[in-house]
Amino acid sequence: MTTTAEELDNDSPAHPGEHHDHGPTDTFYFKIFLILVAITALEVSTYFWSSWFGKDSYKVAVPVLLIMMVVKFGLIASFFMHLRFDRRILTRVFYFGLGLALAVYIVAMSVMNIWTDNGNTRFNDPPPNAQPTTTIEGGAGG
Amino acid sequence: MADIALEQVEDLEFPDDIHETATGISNPKLAMWVYLASDCLLFGGLISTYLLYKNRPGNIPGLAGSPLRASELFNIPFTSMTSFILLMSSLTMVLAVNSIMRGDKQRMRLWLVATAVLGGLFLGGQVYEFTEFVREGLGYTSNVSASAFYTLTGFHGAHVGVGVLMLLSAVGYSFRRDIQAEAIEVLGLYWHFVDIVWVVIFAIVYLIP
Fold it and tell me: What's the number of domains chain A is made of?
């Protein structure tokens, strides 16, 4: 059984992920761009949610914003940066760095008590201590 | 016969005389990805610092303590427009890469110049924003919150500036010599990363209350 150059080029077992002359078209990239613009518009709209839906809307807006941010990040990395079409090792290298950065700084921010902000203008305060229990000393002595 | 076919494929896939490596990825491209992965740590540190100090503008002993916060001065419609400009520059960059992949150098130059112009517009927007903030009384040393904000967005702006210089250099170089498609692709990776970082900054710094 012979393998033609065209067949190899199409599913690229010899060089999976290397560039091809017939990669995604300009129209494809334009569609990705339109999706990114739509997501950005939705992101910007969350800024006005508090005036439209009330102050509590931020409870929904924050997770929605984070999800949209991740989707935009993924779309740009996968398609514009060609991670989806390129060798897997590149995806691993990049997301390893990203994961490391996320882990390091989530730990660092946790150590600095960012999750327990109670309005101190100097530093984030540590979590409040448990109420000390009162003990009766020397109850029935003597 | 399959060996002959493989050789033909190699001819197809390495048109710019790029040497094969053990990983099958050229060294400049792998190096760029490793650099981008390490840059995640740099921007992660800057974003974390801003998050830690954004609500603590003043009253730190020994430091300047203007009570003004950067977040009180944000002009979201304006920043949204500059974000859109940077997003559009990502499209023009990927179109430049696609053009050189097809061997169309003229169109590649056009898209690279468009990307550089859009990058320049974004930088102009950032300079305008900083100028407005300073006019409102929020300088780099006004408080730690302001320092963290200017350092983060300033570092991003510096990345954009370096990107614009590289884009213009690539255009100039392409007139004098044959430019490799992969060089433009590697440049594109850097540019898209700058856009990705702004996606994160825009959401976390500007939009999340």
Answer: 2
